[in-house]
């Protein structure tokens, strides 16, 4: 089975009358020699790590402080519980979950790189909020991870998933596209709709630069995970309504690739441009590292 | 083009915050510890480039030390590495040092074992948790630890390599990659063979029987 482009995925789905996650499962089984059951079991382990990281960072008792961020997830989660969130429960909770996972990551906790450590909050945020509000089973969530894996695979092969190569659009943009496709399939959308959801999500974050303050995976990374999560849900909602991406998925991925190539080095994870180069960004950098030398 | 699998995209499970500066660092530490072998009592880390500039922010120091102590890149105890080292009586130190024309994420690890041996291992974290060992003691080497890796130190003379590959063949171990490194002709040489299968302990014993071979080490692949 050859999968290079999104169009390949759609063609196989149509020929075999299968959803994306099942095509991904067959592809992985052929590639690794593992049975479909073994692959699902391994994916279930990753799902469990994601789940732990979602709830770990919401707990007030835990020290989830990185060098710059910490405590934001709990704040938003408590607001969801105590008042009616302006963007609705599913989205507000998803965002609090995504923040939580990024705080766990920043404080040297255990996470799943999905696709990267910098973008580790998006998929857990999307999936576990949907699981609560729409009563999605664990089996369906595992399938969702496989769907998102298929989308990530195509992006990895045709563009990049690394902030150092393609900016934040390659990390959060890709994670968001992966999340959108997963939500579409979990909610009963077709493979075509899933890729439209992915395309819309990636388009919305096209051009996003990678400018981490002090070079740390904290700010603006954490809140960009939040927006990647919200964007995944919004894009999936549109795709499920039958709204299509004007530009097809594969062309969006190629556009992202080209935009990444045009992006200057200062905006690709070097912490030399963008927010990292602002007066406050520079001050925070000095504070973080002078604190260390004093120790 | 690399053939990606689904777990390259959804994974690995790791301790944050950075795949190169934390997960990769833990892996480098673990490989260095295994290369040294035995009980380690003292370790010094010389951090180069981006490792030197940002190690505290990314927990690179804790991850390296945790790796030397044998912890996996997804072990939640990585953040307590300093305490663990003290409990185990392992002394450690971090220094910033320019290691020359190497990858920005490079560290030289000098390990002292209880038997009084000192081993120097230099390696780079090359992204996405992947690593490369580039130097062991005086030998410039190159391997990534993705496969079971056999390392032998031997006298540079005819027949040694043939003997090693014959033993591996006898135990149905296929060599995926093999390279030889030496300083001068007839001096000590290092062989690094990466194999598709695990190397059984009986095979290792047979390799050790060759009088020209002074030392044999096997590194299991570190899965992350």
Largest interface: A-B, 51 and 35 residues
CATH topology of the largest domain in chain B: 60s Ribosomal Protein L30, Chain: A
User: How are the strands ordered across the major sheet of chain B?
Assistant: 3-2-4-5-6-7
CATH class of the largest domain in chain B: Alpha Beta
Give a short account of the largest sheet of chain A. Answer: none
The overall average pLDDT of chain B, rounded, is 92
What's the number of helices of chain A? 13
Termini Cα gap of chain B: 21 Å
Shape category of chain B: globular
CATH architecture assignment of chain A: Orthogonal Bundle
Q: So what's the oligomer here?
A: heterodimer
Shape of chain A: globular
The parts of chain B where pLDDT drops under 50 for at least 5 residues are none
- CATH architecture grouping of the largest domain in chain B: 2-Layer Sandwich
Low-confidence stretches of chain A: none
CATH class of chain A: Mainly Alpha
CATH topology of chain A: 2-methylcitrate dehydratase PrpD
Description:
The complex is a heterodimer of chains A (295) and B (224). With 295 residues, chain A is an all-alpha fold. Chain A has a single domain (6-294), classed as Orthogonal Bundle (2-methylcitrate dehydratase PrpD), CATH 1.10.4100. Chain A has 13 helices and one strand. Chain A has helices at 6-16, 20-32, 36-56, 72-82, 89-106, 122-134, 138-158, 163-166, 168-186, 191-204, 221-240, 249-262, 279-294, and one strand at residues 110-112. Chain B has two domains: 6-137, D-3-phosphoglycerate dehydrogenase, domain 3 (60s Ribosomal Protein L30, Chain: A); 148-219, ACT domain (Alpha-Beta Plaits, 2-Layer Sandwich). The mean pLDDT of chain B is 92. Strand 1 of chain A pairs antiparallel with strand 1 of chain B.
